[in-house]
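Q: What does the assembled structure look like for these inputs?
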Amino acid sequence: MSTRKASLTDKQAKNGTSKYVLERCASVNEYYDIAFKVMLLGDSAVGKTCVLVRFKDGAFLGGNFIATVGIDFRNKVVDVDNLKVKLQIWDTAGQERFRSVTHAYYRDAQALLLIYDITNKPSFDNIRAWLTEIHEYAQKDVVIMLLGNKSDMAAERVVKTEEGEKLAKECGIPFMETSAKTGVNIELAFHAVAKELKHRATQQPNDPKFKIHEYIDSQKHKSGCCKQA
Ligand SMILES: Nc1nc2c(ncn2[C@@H]2O[C@H](COP(=O)(O)OP(=O)(O)OP(=O)(O)O)[C@@H](O)[C@H]2O)c(=O)[nH]1
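A:
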């Protein structure tokens, strides 16, 4: 398996011949009201880069898998309740040998999307180890969301939706299954996190608390796409 990074043109993206190089200045001049750092975590090959690229560009990076080296980021500005919220999204390398590099970034993140692959049991079993790392290195009040990615691969599924739900419930964190390939729940995951962060940052003492679990449930039901087998 290669760990080379290569730049990606639209054509390469369509052909699935290369992996993204994250462009640091992509949205540097885009107007925003408030900004937050979000990190993508999880084992190698669960689809972190693909989730980011789907959210940022609406494209799917198919083809040969090229592992991320170290860490990089992309920005996306989303509208939340009439505010422009900039998400600076850090894509980390899932491989063990880069762990010490990524640890250094945990403490700056306000939200963590912890991702496993529904077709890869070890990636699910490792979620508890990831949570231990998060508790060691991240801010105490960091927003955490669990994502079971590759929900389009029904035939290869080895982790049931209920197992993801159960683990998330035990840990008190929101959960959804996503597909970077089809786009299912990708926007919702980032929007729910942006909404939670915006509420925390702007909330007045008497304002009602934002309930991320309820928001996700209401949006899933609206789109009717919560569980893709
Ligand atoms: N079918 C399907 N394939 C996916 C999905 N997301 C990612 N993949 C594939 O899974 C492989 C790994 O995806 P990456 O996004 O590179 O994985 P990663 O988690 O960033 O891996 P590291 O950079 O090593 O941490 C690639 O071959 C992708 O095309 C998905 O939702 N559905």
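The CA atoms of residues 77 and 102 lie 24 Å apart.
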